[in-house]
Please model this.
Amino acid sequence: MNPTPAPKKILIADDELYMLRLLELTLKKGGFEVISCRDGQEALALAVSTLPQLIVLDVMMPGLDGLGALRQLKENPATRAIPVIVLSAKGHALTRVEAEVAGTALFLAKPFSPNQLLGDVQKIIGPNPS
Model:
């Protein structure tokens, strides 16, 4: 018998506890392993130590914001290839362009549908092996 493959890991960073919990529940429902943190600096450290298959970053966070974290992730050879979804409460065109230039796989404006997010995640990294 083959052992069951481990679920794919997703790192999420959002300073709003409600949003963090919503993201966790949505992604766990999809069968993903979720690693959570509340700021960009912690997200960078966790990305290097856990090497998730996907990272979800909120733009507005204290300290290092999501766009700054995205730029640093894409500059680091260890994390450069990890796809990143950027979430923003302000759907400004400039923020979207900055995220795309920095290398985001997807930009989502809040509020968004949890089912849409799950579908987008599965498009980017595929569904979990069952």
